[in-house]
Predict the structure.
Amino acid sequence: MPDPPGSSSALRTRAARGAVKPEIQALRAVAVLLVLAYHVAPKGLPGGYVGVDVFFVISGFLITAHIVKPLRRGTLTVGGFYARRAVRLLPASMLVLLVTLVSTWLFVPRSLWPQFGRQIAASALYVENWVLAGNATDYSAPAADVSPVQHFWSLSAEEQFYLAWPALLIVGSIVAARWRRWRRAYLAVLAPLALASLTWSVLATAGEPASAYFITTTRAWEFAAGGILWLVVHRAATLPDPVRAAGSWAGAGLIAAAAFAFSSRTPFPGWAAAVPVLGAVLVLAAGLPRARWSPSGLMGWKPVQAVGDMSYSLYLWHWPLIVLLPFVAGAQLGLEGRVVAVLVAVPLAYLTRRFVEIPVLDAYRPTGGAFWRRKSTVGLAVATGMVLVAVPAFTMNTTVRHQQTVAWDTLERVVASPPACFGAAAVDDPACAASADDDPTDAVYPAPLIGDQDDFGVVHRGCQVGGDTVIATPCTFGDPDGTVKVALVGDSHAAQWEPALAAVAEQRGWQLTTYLRSGCPVTATPPQDRSAACRAWEKDVIDTVEHGDFDYVFTSALSATHYGGDGGVEGFVDAWTRMGGSGARVVALRDNPDPTQAGVQSTPACVEDRSAEACGTSQDVSLLPDPQVSAVEETPGAALVDLTGYFCQDGTCPAVIGDVLVYHQDQHVTMTYMTTLAPMLSEAIDEAVGPVPGS
């Protein structure tokens, strides 16, 4: 009687016939399901992103085998290796990118075309991870920069690994030619690389985790771990079945523990990545133990193997659907919508596997003279596929960039001579509402196409710092010789007040100095998920202001920041007390509403795609409690400026006020709207602290 399909002996027979090992397919299934669950319900599985690390270990394990075996036989050709990788990976990925590109053109607002087009092109060229690393200047960057191909960062890292790995193993083969023990020779090459990458991963994660998450150099050791395992896995096969079964369960437990215990606050990759990596190594090393209580039967379960077989296509399809379906449906996806997106991805993945991946692999059979012909054909096909995706994506980017140039010229003319009811002025003048009704145009300034660029951090690069900066970097505005010296300190939500405060300083002859850093509120007890560089910068700002000669210190911070404990109040009180120790008076600027709380992730995109009226939000939902309000009450001498009335009226917080777009990315206020708030801010300052010299 033949063995049941899921039995250990049947699975071992399947592996012996050349099929991918069942434990590898099972591990792939686990990895992709973790990623899908994380993207569907991140709060339910906050560490599901470790599925990517499991994929990296599997890739290192398999690719090392694919290179070392022919190297030892003397049959490896680098061109043949790359052709095989291209045939395996690129048809499905280019199909998904092409569909994503067309869907972006059909359904996504033009204001997002440059962002999406740039990342689609980067994904087609497999450098998406470095693009995201460059964009991840603060903790809000990933959300603000989300694209339907953001998940290609891991595929980019993998392809870059493929570029370097053959060369390293060829060096190992040279060493092996002089040593009798070839495995040790390869280990002598790979182990130092793995150690160096792990060390760099720990250091980079501590210094700037946002970019460290994506870059190849912090992930190389995970691939190397899989490669090293392949070199020594033969020893694990000699262990007793109960030991291997225990190891397999332990590995699965480590992966599960990381998936449930880790979160966005976990410094990652760094040391933490060793948990899922070790888990994957243990599962692969254990293989298919014969012990009755081993997970071999579960690994061989047909649904598990089926998910493993199509894991690559499923990974490719699920994220574009999650990101693009809201544009198609005209509404944000809740939990149910994300579940539907993943369910739609399953048949797409099956069809891609059945009609794209397998047929292309079957057609590529390099034998004899045809081998060289087909290698060149593969190279031409790869180049053609990349061009077909990257060129239209770049064109989409370039076209909109030209339109943005025109929009900037228009904005400059309007701001130079604004109408009477422009921006915040429309709130105070009842006649503005009537004139708006009589205005037949739907002009908005800045135009949604340039809304996200109308930002202090973009216009004044270098004044809103990020990255590894730990020094309080000053920028000066207003009157450089002014006798009244004021400072503006804080995160990007403090930075957004600069246009209004600079206008006040210019009018009153103040000297305004800014100390601003993305994602870093100035507080004595910063959120735990902030980088070491951020914490060091905050301390330096407090010290600088404390020993400075400032009359007033203005500050603000993102209300949605999670501080824990008392909600951040005590940290603000301590910082403000220190900064006010030299005689400066602290003035907190209450934070503005947050449209993302009401489901408006991009106000410019919403206004372009729908209308200004459709993109307003409820004040009860979007105006979050601000810990600065309580901190002012507990800090002697501190004052509060609250201009909420110029963001919300009658319980609604409009997206456009007085023909001016209020927000750009996420909940940040445009420079244009902030500039129109200058007269109101000037008056509010006098009301909060009394007449100020120069007023």
